[in-house]
Amino acid sequence: MKAKVFVTFKEGVLDPQGKTIKNAIVSLGYEGVEDVRQGKYFEMTLDTLPKEKAENLIKEIAEKILANPIIEQFQYHIE
Amino acid sequence: MKAKVFVTFKEGVLDPQGKTIKNAIVSLGYEGVEDVRQGKYFEMTLDTLPKEKAENLIKEIAEKILANPIIEQFQYHIE
């Protein structure tokens, strides 16, 4: 089983890294990009677990280890 | 339009950050996680472009700016 977790800043939290990347894109002459937000991505290989157990495990790990819930939010997919 | 880009190490490239997170998960007592790989995640807001143009733009930006093609690979979705 694979779990994919995406951690991004909450809306309203400044993202200077994303802004820098946006500026680099513009200064290299690419047109059409309005905004960039950077986040973290985790690919986890899990033992075979019932879907519900896997979801609870991933939620708990994301909340406690992968994301800082004060400024970050996360999404996940389990495959 | 939104584009999501995921950058991960190519297979065979060591990922010490991922390994450290895996060890933290185990030492906190969670069972069922075999492996963790860390990557980067980018959410880009694009001007409205024809799908093909948007794909070419994202591919080029990912190859030239977001990923280091020697050790990293990327995937993207455009919505």
Comma- or semicolon-separated keywords:
Mth169, Chain: A; elongated; homodimer; 79 residues; alpha+beta; 35% helix; 37% strand; 3-stranded antiparallel sheet
Summarize the structure.
The structure is a homodimer of 79-residue chains. Chain A has a single domain, classed as 2-Layer Sandwich (Mth169, Chain: A), CATH 3.30.1280. Helices cover 35% and strands 37% of the residues of chain A.
Description:
Two copies of one chain form a homodimer. Chain A has helices at residues 16-27, 51-66; strands spanning 2-9, 33-46, 72-78. Chain A is α+β, with helices and mostly antiparallel strands and 79 residues long. The first copy, chain A, contains two helices and three strands; from the N terminus they run E-H-E-H-E. The radius of gyration of chain A is 16 Å and the shape is elongated. Chain A has a single domain, classed as 2-Layer Sandwich (Mth169, Chain: A). The mean pLDDT of chain A is 95. Helix content of chain A is 35%, strand content 37%. A three-stranded antiparallel sheet of chain A has the order 2-1-3. Chain A binds chain B through residues 6-8, 18, 21, 24-25, 28, 30-47, 49, 53-54, 57, 60-61, 64-66, and chain B through 6-8, 18, 21, 24-25, 28, 30-47, 49, 53-54, 57, 60-61, 64-66. Strand 2 (33-46) of chain A pairs antiparallel with strand 2 (33-46) of chain B.
